[in-house]
Amino acid sequence: MQTAIAPMTQPGKSGLGRWLSATSLVVLAAALGAAPVQADPLVGKTRNTFGMPGVLDMPSAEMFPDGELGIGLTVLDDGTSRATLTFQIAPSLVGAFRYSRVPGLMPVKGDDDKETGAYTALYDRSFDIRWQMLEEGRYRPAVAVGMNDFVGTGVYSSEYIVATKSFGDRLRVSGGLGWGRLGSHGSIASMGTRPEYDYGSTGGQFNGKNWFRGDVAPFFGLSWAMTDRLTLKAEYSSDAYEKETADSPPNGDWERRSSVNIGADYQLGAFTHMQFFYMHGDKFGFQITRAINPQEPPFASGIERAPLPVQPRPPVSADRLGWSGAWSQDPTAQPAIQGALAQALEKDGQVLESMSLSATRAELRIRNMTYGAQPQAIGHAARTATRALPPSVETITITSVERGLAISSVTFHRRDLERLENTRALDILPSTTITAADAHDPAQVRTADLYPRFRWGLMPYAEASIFDPDNPLRADFGAQLSAKFELAPGFVMSGLVRQKVAGNLDNSTRVSDSEVQHVRSDLVEYQREGDLALQYLTVSHYGQPMPNVFSRVTVGYLERMYGGVSGEMLWKPVDSRLALGLEANWVKQRDFDQHFGFQDYDTATGHVSAYYDFGRGYVGELHVGRYLAQDWGGTIELDREFENGWKVGAFATITDMSSEEYGEGSFDKGIRLTIPVAWSTGKPSVNTLKTTIRPLQRDGGARLDIDGRLFDTVHGAQTGSLYNEWGRFWR
Amino acid sequence: MTNRRRAVMAALALVAGLAACGTDQTRLETGREATAEVKALLRGLVHRGAKGAAPDPQQIAREALAANPGPVMLVSLEATKSTSVFGLRGENNGMRTWLSPSGQGVITRGGVLAGTRGFGNDLMSSDIGPLIGVVQGRRTTELKIELRYLDGLGKERPLPLACRTGTAAPTGYDFAGMRFEGTPVAVHCEGYGFKFDNSYIVSGAGVVLSSRQWIGPRLGYLTLQSLRN
Hints:
By secondary structure, chain A is mainly β.
């Protein structure tokens, strides 16, 4: 495993880490019935100045541990800074998103929009990707191919192929060939032509025809782990720092005195590194990075109330009436049992929505308000049921309900619950069935006094703005009041009002320069004028018009910027990897103050969607249709979902809006993160923190931001997710 | 500090002090957590003094026996030095589930720890069949067991262990006004770089009277004293 080829053992990596890596095969084999081929890429410990695994400016063939997220900041003493977010997408594939400041690269425009000849700092965003195509062997080095800044303005645009070999536990040597920026010094050959860097470009387009074109130059690097914490690094750089050293235009104050860069990396903690470097005999630099691994929560997971245990049934001789099933003829039996179960489940953080009961079967429809993993909620409900149901009931079905939708039914033999309590979680799965729920089962009796149901909350909030060149971080703080009024299952009124108390989001002087309808780019206006802002106020209805089909209608102030009507249908059989959806909306743009008024702009927008679960946690989505600015096109999204609820994804939208009309960035793209609250607290929770990071928010390819879409509502309680999270069934 | 800054600080304090309140648990929680973090931080800064003396376990035991008619035991987690009374809440298949007032759970089979719940990083399930007979029979032998835990993703992972057992001369002690007499049984287990030593005092009838048992890599040892079996 990793420890065999890592250059050093991680300080503090106890037997626990070794055991976790050593037993993963055992568990997977048990889960899949066969031992799978385990990818085993070369993992690097230190980063280069761009935040990727590597030497200093140069890349290596190394990867990060699978699933690891990293954030880092690099600063050079000429004023260059690079903030990078990295993600190990798959064991052999790593990606990065970067926000950088490079002094002297941005032409200054006068009031007449003509260039003045002066230059200021360029704030730019870039994406990198690297694939380790060959794993390290005994004699063979690991080999990777990668591209830096491959969609964007292109100041860091470069491609490379690189090999890295480890010698013993402490020494690693890398060597490779670079194109673009990495082929700019000491080139040995040239492959076709590569256009010059364009200072005035709007960027954002895939510069595909430039990849691996132009001059090629070799580079080398080595890293030596002197101690478990300290790593020394040196490299021969093939980056000429052309733009930074250029005399015309006079950009930076770089002087490239040497091709050799040196640096030292010090590991501060299990996840934090600090690095100093001296670049080209001219500039000093500093970097601090922090890794977050979704697979390693900071808190002990499972700090919660223990579930009630299974209560085995008494022998027949001890309860002949109960075993006979004659009790089911008594009309008072079900109300009494249902009342007791509803009470017990409420204490457990769940709602018993309805229930059916006969002499031999019981079906409990539950809404899980507490547990991040639905199997845990189902496990609690099944155990609670054994404590209340008469002995003749042998079949127990737990149906998951979300927003009034009966999503899936998990059916147990009661004798299996009795026999297998607290055994291996997977032991009970073969005799458990997961089926679609009958949405309109006439035998279901609704629990008394559940509806109407009113809930409210008053809490603080924070809203931040990043990537504004004038002030990279602005934020507002305030209080928000939310209310939810459920009239009947799946029929909900909800609203949210925010009052800002302090902050500086209103200091922004950025005015949207968009040439098309400002469907999203007026965000600053909404932030500035939104004093006592109504974030949303809607009435929604969810339904199941036919088997495997779910529906949603939402009316009202749908989101901060739009109000109107939204309708959606989703076809998603319980065990299907594929789901198909249709969404149609008519919306009108809201006033900046986010009270009840509207602006003049209204439009119809909607999409046809396909969702596909590729397995191993990868879920893809494709949305094709009309966007808010009446542009037509498609959005492609890919998420990696972890079993504990973490999600990391990327999306891109291409529409018929031209890149000139779109403006800087050329098309809409970004990264999104979902972090379960339970991951960071250890306590059970269904809540998540979600964030979307866009290099730029423009007006092309903008979708409605509506709460409670159908796929997200049903996905977590269907077969795929239930299997993935089944390990928590007996928790 | 300028007036404006003071106003901002006061406003921030107000927001931080705004305890999340209401009835919508799913929405409130994030705010609650944030508020609790800030409060804990402040409390930590303000009160750095020593805590009150730990309550006397024998006193806790006497009170628990008086209050509970059923089987009870006294359990303490070494790592946090917290002691609590666990009452029997269920019996199934030779497995006994004990719950504490604060909702933590301990599962035993024949007095041997088979699982825990609610502590965080719990022992989820185990194959300890051979160990139970050896502990109850106070025998010296070698055997294999398997303990299972959830990893950071929530997937169950086995920890196979090889164990040796041994016994010592019978001993006796007084606790909470009761006399306990039995044979000490020691169990040493190793596997995947982990090792631990469990010890049990087992009565002549094969009942585990008290024990010190390892829960797992992250939780350490649990001490159990049977009060009423």
